[in-house]
Design a protein that fits this description.
It is a single chain. The protein is of the alpha+beta class and about 220 residues long. The protein has two domains: about 45 residues; about 160 residues, Tetrahydropterin Synthase, Chain A (2-Layer Sandwich). The protein is about 35% helix and about 35% strand. It is built from four helices and eleven strands. The strands form three sheets. A six-stranded mixed sheet has the order 9-5-1-4-10-11. It has a three-stranded antiparallel sheet with strand order 6-7-8, with no helix packed on it.
Length: about 220
């Protein structure tokens, strides 16, 4: 009965030695990689540690009406329950976080409320005739597609089309504008906004904050 037990222990010892060998090898590889990143010149080619945070779903979104022009046609007026996601990437602060989740969510919610239950009007669309009246906007595509909407129901956007792509771009710029006004978010390097029209289609826009922070002509 004793011999089999010794054989079994031998197998177990051999297996443990193999695990220890593999673990030691992995740790050695990790240490060499860390030394290479720190001292081999990797920093000179842009190798950096990066962190990012993401907020999405829940009550981040808005319901709005729009139509877009494309390929010589104009969509009928319709609406979406838009979903919004925001991803912020950058260096860690002294407290080891990228950015305060609560602050970012509050900023995005506030901006989304301005678009909620409104018609999204693209002021620079070359295919639309847009006229601002005292209490209304008049929007004309052709004789068969013309609208008069009260100002209180319209959000005028400085875009050429009310596509999800342009909405993502506009919202990203507005978020960064709030950050700049408050003097926060200096450690952020990029901000990505996604606008979801349906569960199967989302448009994204990424703003490089290192470029946005440069003075004109830099």
């Amino acid at each position: 009965m004793g011999a089999p037990a010794q054989g079994g222990n031998g197998i177990e010892r051999a297996g443990m030695e193999e695990v220890l060998h593999e673990t030691g090898h992995t740790r050695a590889m990790a240490a060499r990689t860390a030394r290479w990143l720190a001292a081999s010149g990797a920093a000179s080619v842009g190798a950096r540690m990066a962190w990012k945070i993401l907020i999405e779903r829940g009550n981040l979104g808005f319901s709005a009406a729009h139509f877009i022009t494309f390929e010589g046609t104009c969509e009928p007026l319709h609406g979406h329950n838009y979903g919004v996601r925001v991803e912020a990437a950058g260096d860690l602060t002294a407290d080891s976080y990228v950015f305060d989740f609560v602050v970012l969510k509050n900023i995005v919610r506030t901006l989304c409320k301005e678009w909620d239950h409104r018609f999204l009007l693209p002021l620079r669309n070359p295919h639309l005739s847009v006229a601002e009246q005292d209490t209304a906007w008049e929007i004309t595509y052709n004789a068969e597609a013309s609208y008069r909407l009260p100002k209180s129901s319209v959000v005028a956007l400085d875009v050429d089309n009310a596509t999800a792509e342009r909405l993502a771009e506009t919202l990203a710029s507005r978020i960064v504008g709030v950050l700049r006004e408050r003097g926060i978010g200096d450690s952020l390097r990029t901000l990505t906004v996604g606008i979801e029209e349906t569960e199967m289609q989302t448009a994204f826009y990424t703003l490089d904050l290192s470029l946005a922070a440069r003075p004109p002509g830099a």
